Amino acid sequence: MKNIISKTALWCTLLLLFASSVVAQSDAELKSKIEKLNTEMAKIMVSGDMEKGLSFYTADVISLPNYDKMLSGIDALRKSNEEMKKSGWSVTSFKANTISVTSSGSSITELGTFEISFAIKGSDQPIKDTGKYVTIWEKQKDGSLKIKLEIWNTDKYPCEEK
User: What is the pTM of this model?
Assistant: First the structure.
C-alpha cells in the first residue's frame, strides 16, 4: 500500500511539473506574440491610421484612458480617436515594454510600461511621457488576439511644476 501511495505521489508531482512548464511556455509564447502586436500597433499609431488601429480591439472593448471617461465599445473608441485627431493631437513615437503576461482560459493579462511622444496644437516640440498599463487580450476563434479591456496612466502628475 505504501508503494502505491509513493508511486501515485510521484506521478502527481511529475504531472504538476509538466503542466506548469506547459503553462509557462504558453505564457512565454503569448508574451512574444503580444510584443509583436504592440510593435505593430506603435507603427500604426505613428502613421495615424485609425481604422487599422481599431482592428486590434474587440467590438465590445472597454477602454479606461488616463484623464478621461470610460469608453464602452468600438464606436466610442472610434469617436474618441476622431476627436483627438481633430484637436491636433498626434503620436510621434510610442514604445510598449511588456513586463508580464498571464493567461487564463481565453483571456491574457498583460502588464507593462510605455514611453510616448506626441504633438499637440500650439506646441512646437513633441511632449514626452512615460506610464504604465494593463491590457486584457482575448483569444479569438481564429487564434488571433484582440484587446478586450485596457487601462493606462501617466507616471507624472501633469499639474506638478518642475
Answer: 0.81
